[in-house]
Each structure stands twice: as C-alpha cells, then as structure tokens.
Amino acid sequence: MSSAVDTLWLRTIIRYFRSKSRIIESLATPLFFLLILGFGLNSVSTIPGTGHSFIIFLIPGIITMAVLFTSVFSGIQIIWDRHFGFLKETLIAPVSRNSIMIGQTLGGATTAIIEGMIILVLSLFIVGSFPSVLGFLIAISFMVLISISFSSLGIAIASRMEDMYGFQMIMNFLIMPIFFLSGALFPLTNAPTVLKAIAYVNPLTYGVEGIRYGFLGVVPAINPLISFAVLTGFCIIMVFLGGYLFNKVKV
Amino acid sequence: MDTIEVEKLSKKFGELVAVNDISFTVKEGEIFGLLGPNGAGKTTTLSILTTLLPPSSGKSFVNNFDVETDKDNVRKSIGMVFQDPTLDDELTAYENMDFHGRLYGVSKKIRKSKVISLLKLVELGDRKDSLVKTFSGGMKRRLEIARGLLHEPKVLFLDEPTLGLDPQTRNKIWEYIKKLNQEKKITIIYTTHYMDEADKLCNRIAIIDHGKIIALDTSQSLKNKIGGDVITIKTTDQKKLSHSLKDCKWCESVRVHDGSVTINVHNASKRVVEIVNLAEKNKVKIDDIIIHEPSLEDVFLYFTGKTIREQEASGIDNLRKRMMIG
C-alpha cells in the first residue's frame, strides 16, 4: 500500500478515537431516532407482508443513518484541513493526490463502519433479536459500500467548496433528503408511487435494502443482488468523482 | 553549484501579474533572502518553486529537477515552512512529525530516532506527547521547522517564519536557521519583510517589489551601491527642500517620502552643514536631522522611491485583488 494511503487512514482513526465526545455525539442522533420513532410507532404499526414489528424494521435504517452521516462528515473534513492548513502539508508531500484521496476515504469509511457496528450491537440488545452470521456479513458488506460511496461524495463536495459556509446547505438539501427518501424509515412496498419513484433513483435506498435483507433475512422490496450491483456501481462512480475533483484542488 | 535556478519566471492571476519575469540562482549552502513588502510576490515565487502553483511562463529548477515536470523529486528535495501553520492540531507533536516521515517514505527506525532528536533541537522534546492545539504560535513554528527537516531536504524554504512572533522567539528561530545552515549544510530560502532580519541572516538578498527583482546582492554590496551615508531630514517643507537640492552635485540621490527627505551623500558629517545652510537660505524649517550608515531600509527606499511601510499600504489593494481572484 502507498505510504500516503495508510498514513491518512491512520490519522483519521487516531483522531476518531481521540475525541470521545464526538463519538458519543454522532451516535446520539441515530439512537434518538431509533428509540423515539421505534418505540413511539411500534405499537401502531407492523410491517405488512413480513410480520416484523416496526422497531426491528427500523434498525437497518438507523444503521444506515449512522454510516451515511459519519461518512459524509469525514469526507468533508478536507474543508477543515484546508482551513487549518494541514491540506498543504499533504499536497506538498511526494505522494499522488489519488493516494491521499483514497487514504482519506478509507479512513472515513472505517470510522463510519465502526459507528454502524456500534448502533447494530446496541440495537440488538435493545430488541433482543440476532441475525445469522451470513446475514451479518451481508449487512457489513453493504455498510462498506455505503461508507466508501459517501466518504468519496464528501470529498468531492469538499473539493469544490471554498469555505465552510456551504456545509449546512449541503446537509439540508442533499444529505437529509437522501436519508429521508431512502426507505430507511418507511417500507417501500406500500409507499405512494411518487415516493417510491424517488426512492428508486436514490442510491442509498439500495444500501438500506441490502442491510435490511442481511439483518431480517427476508427479501425486501428490492432484490438484494440488484441492490448490490447498483450500490457497487454508484460506489465506483463516487470514488472516481471524488478522485477527479480532489486532483483539481488548489491551495 | 547552483541549488536553485530560476529563469524568466512569471505568474499571472488574471490581470494581476504577481511575479514578473524574475531570474536568479541560489548557490548550495547559501542563506538566500527574498525581501519585499506584503503582496510583492514572495509567497507566489515560493509556491511555484515548491510545486504548489504552476508558473505562467519561465523555467525553474530545484536541486536540478524541473519544478513542473519532476514534481516528486522536487518535493523530496525540499522542506517547506509555510506562513500559516499546516499542522494537525488534534495530533501530538510526535504524531505530526511521524506522519510527515511516513508521507516522505522515511523508514520506521530512522523516524523514531530522528523525530526525537529534531524535537530536542527545537526544544520541544519534553512536549512531544502534547496535542499541538495546546502550543503557542512560536512553538508551532518551531515544530514546523523541525518537521520540514525530517526527510533531510537539500533546500529548506521558509515563508516569513518569524511573522507575528515575539522578539525572543524570533531570535531563537534565527539561531536555529543559522545552526541548520552551518551544521547540516542545508540551503535556505527565506522570505521576510523585516529588513533587520534579512540583514542579519542572509548571505545574499533579492529585493522584490511588484513582482520584480529590483536588486540582488550581499547586504553590504547593496548598501555600498546607494553611495556613502544617509541623511534623513524631517521637515514640513519637503518639496521646497528637495527642490533647492536639485542642483546639488555631491548628492547621490534625494528622495521625498512620508514626512522626510532622504539624501545619500559621501562624507555626510561635512555635507550636513552645507545642507542646513542651503535650507536656511531657502527658508525651509528643519525639525530634525539624522545621519546614519545605510541600512537595508535605505536600500529599499533608494531602489523603489518608497519605504517598505509605504509600499505595503499600497500593496494591500493588490493583495485584495489577489484574494478575490483566489
């Protein structure tokens, strides 16, 4: 592996574990969603066709949420690196831009998967149901794809942003809609046509569905193989887009 | 041997010409100063030489590698300390150094021993495990200098390394730079707008203004060029005084600038009487007279017609333009 890839990966991991408060912070929102929505709506809804209670249905969606937000945040980290100067230190080193970008992406993806796993384990204890080993592995492989895709997207966005002011807008008008319109919080099977149509063009939907398949063991609205193919394609496009835009960054 | 060669280098940002057709060479083991006001083009020149910015035209070589076509070899040959800190605040001093070593392919064994010895060199040995965010500005600068040396560069670029530091820390950084140059034989390129600093540290100095090199020599030769001593006269009738000195044959130069008239002459102590007599004859009221040996400040004034402070005030507009262009 290139020295830049593992250096930047290691840096992200060290920084992640060093700020305990940030770990708790980034876990808090998904857990609130899980507990409040989950237990709040559990008594009034069961998922048609599967007989699962709502909270069990919701867990994969919340895992996706944790992975999505952590990935995007870690990609956007580059704006902070530019602001505080560290980006110059990496760009002036005798390493390729691509290896910097890949190191940053893998670091972000790793922390996102750690977050997802924490939510996964916590929620298993909350509801007391466990997926099979194979299902577990399937869920993780989808988490990996989501995390790499959205870390790369974060880097792509950060490469085009001059300062941090656009950050809130990106969260409100891009990341939030991607999350809410992905079928993370509601089943697609009986959703209104418009909502369904939007969900099907949303790449995150295929991630949620894949994790849900691994976690619940029953085939959701989308065939898991299709989900895997679509998400893999999206992931490759995002990595290339992130790499392309990061190569154009000026300091 | 020349460590750095710059040939007809230019850089334009839209309409603004930040670096205008400059050429110079830096010898191996030299401390070379780029002296000029803010916005003169010093940082842009450094950015080109360190491969961060592509030039608009011209060629430059660092350690015999072309900065445009052989970036990786240039990058391996140089260390750079930027004007603004480029450390990771959330990491410790040791980690910042260690990661730098990793990026430059320094082996683990060498990293371990060198990081410690370099941190000791800049007197941060006992703070190696502290997070950088707890460091003062001077400590950060020292850490950056140590970091820039880890991969044993041939050339160390320092962009205004003492800007905004207290005098004590400035002195310390001067000491380090001299020590590095003497003990490790590193060629040093140094930008500053502090005249005294350039004077004390640099073997040769290039005075740069509006993107052009207007003078390049040793500090002493530059001072000799302006001819003898400097007489600075404070007066409210600057125009009248300079007018009455128009036909003065022994004046090397007469310049009016912020509230004073500066005259370069040989044998100043003798000539000062004549100047005072002349002023009296022309009814010019003199507030104060200072006679001194020329400093680099006078050299700058001689070549540009302005003091460096005046030039900076007008340079701010240029700087603004550049920020907008990005």
Structural class of chain B: alpha/beta
Q: What's the overall average pLDDT of chain B, rounded?
A: 87
CATH class of the largest domain in chain B: Alpha Beta
The SS-based structural class of chain A is mainly alpha
> Could you give a short account of the major beta sheet of chain B?
6 strands, mixed
CATH topology of the largest domain in chain B: Rossmann fold
| Helicity range of chain B | 40-55%
DSSP, total strands of chain A: 0
What do these coordinates show?
The complex is a heterodimer of chains A (251) and B (326). By secondary structure, chain A is an all-alpha fold. Chain A is built from 10 helices and no strands. Chain A has helices at 3-18, 20-42, 54-83, 86-91, 97-127, 133-160, 167-180, 193-201, 203-216, 224-247. In chain A, helix 5 (97-127) packs across helix 6 and helix 6 (133-160) runs antiparallel to helix 9. By secondary structure, chain B is of the alpha/beta class. Chain B is built from 12 helices and 14 strands. Chain B has a 6-stranded mixed sheet with strand order 6-7-8-3-9-10, with helices on both faces. In chain B, strand 1 (2-13) and strand 2 form a beta hairpin. Chain B starts with a strand and ends with a helix. Classes of the chains: A mainly alpha (251), B alpha/beta (326). The A-B interface holds A 3-4, 6-7, 10-11, 14-15, 18-19, 84-95, 162, 250-251 and B 50-53, 71-73, 75-76, 80, 82, 84-91, 95, 99-100, 102-105, 326.
